[in-house]
């Protein structure tokens, strides 16, 4: 393995300052509700508007949206919804016998109230709202509370509002940052308390989700976008470069990594990246992301390359090697896999239907990211009768005696006697 370009060390640790800032925000929202939320909105977003986006405000805002933009958003909602429905079909209830008189199973129960955080960010991302809210609607959530920063003419961008409306949000609030997460987790006079909070955000949003976890569920804690392109001598350098920069432009701390079986190809990709960057606006985050977080390495074999990909456990894994289908199952750790040169990560970012809220910082070792399953509970049940009661009670009584748990023994023993 040889590094052609090495990324700078990027600390993934939450700073003490961020942790303490978020802790104070949550404490203030808990004690002062709407008053604290509005104080932080004014402090961080210079917003003094009402927290709730009314139906009238939403309709007026959406009315100014071009029809072609509405069509794009409707297509996003449709495709994300259909993929979530297909996933939901895989989640089946269970009810079967596990011995004479022992019947057990589980039910698929929707989470009742979902909190959807939709970042404002540098651009009004049309897909962000539907990616978080549409699967919640498919799962059967009764109420979907969405929060997004008021960073567009004193409100939420009309495209974001339309996406939320089409994908099932029942309540929309113009609140951003940690104060939005705190409001949804704790509840205020205006913002309902939720059961689960989902959606990406900046470091304050991520830290707020970490601190409220336990009181509410969360999907995952995701950071800036990541991509690893796996290539060989046949892979097109310009296509690889374009795919790397597509994710690098999300954030200055984005990670864009090339793992190649060919040094010549790797060097050609670097050259293409540098040329393409000259066409990007000077303010594009892609410049800093590539400079500090871009990484290029050459591996000696396909096996070493696959191991390298698994070690990175990257958010987006894009395989540009033509024979990708023959070794696809060897990839074990990724947020989402893109097989073949034509399978652009951008398609998933925008409209293919798979979710773009994915694990970063090697979180792909233990999760695949946001999906419809985040919005349901798999709750078990059991009915024990007759011979099943006798069998289990004998075991439980003996085990409780060994463990010294008198109450457990009495409960099991009563079943034996009766």
What's the gist of this structure?
Belongs to the histidinol dehydrogenase family. The protein has helices spanning 16-32, 34-45, 55-63, 67-90, 128-139, 158-167, 177-186, 203-212, 237-248, 263-277, 285-293, 302-312, 324-327, 345-350, 386-403, 406-417, and strands spanning 2-5, 94-97, 102-110, 113-117, 143-147, 171-173, 196-198, 217-218, 226-231, 255-260, 294-298, 314-319, 334-339, 376-384. The chain is α/β, with parallel strands linked by helices and 418 residues long.
Instruction: Give the uncertain stretches in residue-range form.
Output: none
Largest sheet: 6 strands, mixed
Secondary-structure-based class equals: alpha/beta
Number of helices: 16
CATH superfamily of the largest domain: Nitrogenase molybdenum iron protein domain
Overall CATH class of the largest domain: Alpha Beta
- Strand content range: 15-25%
Order of helices and strands: EHHHHEEEHEHEHEHEEHEHHEHEHEHEHH
Fraction of residues in H or I helices: 40-55%
Mean pLDDT: 95
For the termini, the CA-CA separation is 70 Å
What is the CATH topology of the largest domain?
Rossmann fold
Number of strands: 14
GO cellular component, one term: cytosol
Cofactor: Zn(2+)
Protein name: Histidinol dehydrogenase/sulfopropanediol 3-dehydrogenase
Binding site for Zn(2+): 247, 250, 349, 408
